[in-house]
Records
---
Amino acid sequence: MMRIEVDYDSCESNALCAAAAPEVFELDDDDQLAVLQPKPPLALCGAVEEAARSCPKRAITLVEDPA
Ligand code: SF4
């Protein structure tokens, strides 16, 4: 299973990750990034990997989570 970690100090809330994986990432009303599914199902992993690649700040880290 995959777990998503976000470096909120680096994130500049440009929503590129949300464009790549809208089921997982969105900006809240304060323009703060929200991770809707920190442990996304396998079916979304491709989109999440694309989101991580699309982040210009390299703020998204994908961690193997055995649980
Ligand atoms: S793409 Fe990166 S910088 Fe942009 S909102 Fe997502 S995590 Fe933040």
---
Amino acid sequence: MALNLLSALLLATVTTRFTSAAITKRVTCPTGETTTNAECCVLFPILDDIQANLFDGGECGEEVHESLRLTFHDAIGFSLSQGGGGADGSIITFGSVELAFAANAGVDDIVDAQTPFVNKYNISAGDFIQFAGAVGVSNCPGAPRLEFLLGRPAATAASPAGLIPEPQDSVDSILARFADAGFSSDEVVALLASHSVAAADLVDPTIPGSPFDSTPAVFDTQFFIETQLKGTAFPGLIAISTCCRETTHPVFRTSGNVGEAESPLAGEMRLQSDGLLARDSRTACTWQSFVVDQTGMQNQFKAAMAKMAILGQNKANLIDCSDVIPVPQGVTTTPHLPANKTMDDIEQACSTSRFPTLTTDPGPATSVPPVPSS
Ligand code: HEM
């Protein structure tokens, strides 16, 4: 018996040593950093360059928000029924086609900002878009450390039109579009945690930089709380016309604000699609589940992003370079109701469990400032 125990202990020690040796085996890159795979070394100079020169020294600002949005607009160009290369960089390589899609209004700014980096380094546009998104999000306190896989080949064709969801779309249409790309309704909600670090420039071009929650530089759960506040009735849909600010791209707005539902917080914008998804029976309970579950939100966002980032790619051909992505800081605040709001302002939508009880931020109600453009 004693002998058996001793051999078990010895085996455990040997296994632990063997496992930790396997886990800690790393290569040292010419630039001095270490990583598990030598082929990931090419990423460190790019990391330093984009942190300094694309993300203003490592901020969670407009370029990070736009880079995260770009990961989606490139990847979702994938359909189980219509084809499309997914996360292949076609939004840059075939920008003359894809940037003319109405749903890509405003995306040209970040494509213009990222293209010189793609040209400067030996990296495909598809890899660069997902790498910049993962690095950018790591600048947002509270974000998960996203997976990053390297090795997407160059895109061969533009994505078919009509694959990017728009804020005036119905929940039926949004869920059907995501299902056609392989995502469940729970994964749609998880991906929308991205709107925690987001703002709109063109939904209403008269108020650019309008954030979707009160903390657009922090990847926290406030987005899921604030979208559940009672707002005014969602506006009826207004026909889209080609109009307004930028002559080359149609925008959402005509005489009213298509795709926009009024947020009860001054300065904040609520997309109609986010407001509806927060209240639909298929998505409301998952939406509510994130309100006080930062870790669950992080984990599910990370998993859904990992899936989205390789849409259309063969995972077996990609190299795991996730350890190049910086580790984000944690959040320091707790989920709360904005000043002047009470639990009576919450519009209960999940039918199986109550919205968590939250305390109200002290002080008078203030206006949420716009995200500055750089
Ligand atoms: C139902 C699906 C979605 C719809 C209808 C939608 C729609 C929009 C719209 C209309 C904007 C504002 C664009 C502007 O006026 O500047 C926006 C911004 C943004 N979206 Fe989404 N989105 C969806 C899903 C996603 C997903 C899955 C991601 C990423 C994983 C994402 C990331 C972002 C980010 C980060 C921004 C902020 C960009 C900035 O601040 O410049 N969105 N989205």
